[in-house]
Write a structure and sequence with these properties.
InterPro entries: Bact_response_regulator, CheY-like_superfamily, Sig_transdc_resp-reg_receiver. The chain has 121 residues and is of the alpha/beta class. The protein is built from 5 helices and 5 strands; from the N terminus they run E-H-E-H-E-H-E-H-E-H. Strands 2-1-3-4-5 form a 5-stranded parallel beta sheet, with helices on both faces.
Length: 121
């Protein structure tokens, strides 16, 4: 059974790039344009991993992560932050909120896939 991954990013081109990399490896993909959209799409939906941007309108990635982790069904869902943010303070905030990996854009698809595979093992 293929694993399902949720991509949360306000950039359509990033969502398409990540989706192409993931689907080429056989993953199922759901995409959302911000944290609010992502939470709506997660209702009753089982996902194995989430890849989220940090800077987004409506609900940013850190707020989304904190909200996600309050839900029992997603408490242990691994989350990868894929963002232009590279400051340690942001990374620490992300880790404190529950992020398991932090990848800085621009990224290489193999780098992302390696992180995804590691977290899904």
């Amino acid at each position: 059974m293929s694993k399902t991954i949720l991509i949360v990013d306000d950039s359509l081109s990033i969502r398409q790039l990540v989706k192409a990399a993931l689907t080429s490896q056989g993953y199922g993909v759901i995409d959302a344009c911000d944290g609010v959209d992502a939470l709506n799409k997660l209702t009753g939906q089982r996902v194995n991993l989430i890849i989220s941007d940090v800077n987004m309108p409506n609900m940013d990635g850190i707020t989304f992560l904190k909200t996600l982790k309050t839900k029992p069904e997603h408490k242990f869902t691994p989350v990868v932050m894929l963002t232009t943010e590279s400051q340690d303070s942001k990374k620490k905030e992300g880790q404190a909120a529950g992020a398991r990996a932090w990848i800085v854009k621009p990224f290489q698809p193999p780098q992302l896939l390696a992180a995804v595979e590691k977290l899904l093992m």
